[in-house]
Amino acid sequence: MSPPDFPTHIRYQNTALLDLDLNTIEGSIPTDMAGHAFWMVPTPQAGDTPWFNGYRQLYRLDFKGDRSADGPKNRVHLKSGPFHTPSIICDLKIQEQSFWKFWRRAYRFSNKMGLARLNLFLGVQNQCHTGLQAFQDPDNGSWRMMATIDSGRPFDFDPTTFAPVTPVGQRSEWMKMEIDGIPNIPHIKFPWIFPMHMSAAHPAYDDRTG
After folding, report:
1. pLDDT tens track, the chain, 210 positions
2. Quick one: which of 31, 36, 114, 134 is 20 to 30 A from 97 by CA?
3. Chain-centre distance of CA 177, in angstroms?
4. What are the two backbone dihedrals, phi and then psi, of residue 189, each rounded to the nearest 5 degrees?
């Protein structure tokens, strides 16, 4: 939709970092609620860029009872923060280098081809903003969490700090996007630092098989 047809205030989002206890407006918090709830959203960028093409913001609700004598009981805590993969960090650093105008124009990422944010020299930005998946570490039994996207490797991240830990798998284990099999067009391989991988954005974990 063109900008006049789509309310401007809907295309922007408050990305302030939150770390606070929520106040109960009505009723009371159930005493048996415990654990954490995670969700994530892509943050809209300026203009009529699709929402799906934006940096990721992560949110976590903590349900916990405080049994201390002078502390509040059954608190609900909210924390939010950005999640920046290496390609996003590269994008932000390039935008900061305003004094190298030619270099910035050549290597900055741009919103092209619908939902893709890419640079012809560097590749496709992996924003990991589509889904979250918890899974159990087969080595030590601990629970971990990864963020997913349809066009890149999922990233394992720290659920406490929201910092990325590692992409899932080695680069050699993922097939890069190529152009092959089209009549009269040669086989094209893209020598990108950030290649596109067609991946499943909504995988499921089987705790029976691991």
Report:
1. 455 565 666 666 677 889 999 998 998 888 788 889 999 887 766 555 566 677 788 999 998 765 444 555 678 999 999 888 999 898 888 887 665 677 777 888 887 766 778 888 999 888 888 889 999 988 898 889 999 988 889 999 999 999 899 999 888 899 888 877 778 888 888 889 999 888 888 888 998 888
2. 114
3. 21
4. -110, 135
Amino acid identity of residue 155, one-letter, is: F
Spatial CB neighbours of 162, under 8 Å, sequence gap ≥ 6: 58, 60, 81, 82, 83
Decide: residue 65, CB within 10 A, 0-12 exposed, 13-18 middle, 19+ buried. middle
Residue 143, strand partner residues: 136
Asked if 95 and 87 touch (Cβ cutoff 8 Å), the reply is: no
What backbone torsions phi and psi does residue 154 show, to the nearest 5 degrees? -70, 155
Q: Could you give the CA distance from residue 157 to residue 135 in angstroms, rounded to a whole number?
A: 12
Name the one residue in this structure whose structure tokens are 């995670």. Answer: 38
Token pair for 81: 């923060």
